[in-house]
């Protein structure tokens, strides 16, 4: 069973994404409402991947990702950024960070697990 961590400051987004991944793919989902909390959960739970929002108060997604890369306990976990920003300049900036993928909001809950699996090269069961 795949284990995924969703880091997003919006309760509704976390809930919809978690329900979608549990219902459509049977994945175990962990959630966090901030980057700091997300790093703590990732360290404790060692998920297979992290789906993280770009825009969060305090520490944003790209900064959280850079912090994760400095932490040997979580640096190996692939991170997918979830963003509503679709400008080319933002996409290039995010791509240069070394992320596994960039997914866009609004996302389709029914295809989210497939998008994540495809981006990470996971074989779907």
Could you give the topology of this structure?
Blueprint (H helix, E strand, L loop, with lengths): L2 E5 L3 H15 L2 E5 L2 H11 L3 E5 L7 H9 L9 E5 L4 H8 L5 E4 L7 H9 L5
Parallel strand pairs: 1-2, 1-3, 3-4, 4-5
Organism: Edaphobacter paludis
Keywords: Phosphoprotein
Pfam families: Response_reg
Describe the structure.
Keywords: Phosphoprotein. This protein has 125 residues and is an alpha/beta fold. It has a single domain, classed as Rossmann fold (3-Layer(aba) Sandwich), CATH 3.40.50. It is built from five helices and five strands, in the order E-H-E-H-E-H-E-H-E-H. Strands 2-1-3-4-5 form a five-stranded parallel beta sheet, sandwiched between helices. Strand 4, helix 4 and strand 5 form a beta-alpha-beta unit. The chain is globular and about 30 Å long.
Cα separation of the termini: 10 Å
In CATH, the architecture is 3-Layer(aba) Sandwich
Mean pLDDT: 92
Kindly provide the radius of gyration, computed on alpha-carbon positions and rounded to a whole number of angstroms.
13 Å
- How many strand segments? 5
The CATH topology corresponds to: Rossmann fold
Q: What structural class do helix, strand and pairing data support?
A: alpha/beta
Going by CATH, what is the homologous superfamily?
Answer: Response regulator
Largest sheet: 5 strands, parallel
Q: Total domains, how many?
A: 1
Identify the CATH class.
Alpha Beta
Tally of alpha and pi helices: 5
Large-scale geometry: globular
Kindly state the percentage of residues in helix. Answer: 40-55%
Q: Tell me the fraction of residues in β-strands, as a range.
A: 15-25%
Keywords: Phosphoprotein
GO biological process, one term: phosphorelay signal transduction system
Modified residues (4-aspartylphosphate): 53
InterPro entries: Bact_response_regulator (IPR050595), CheY-like_superfamily (IPR011006), Sig_transdc_resp-reg_receiver (IPR001789)
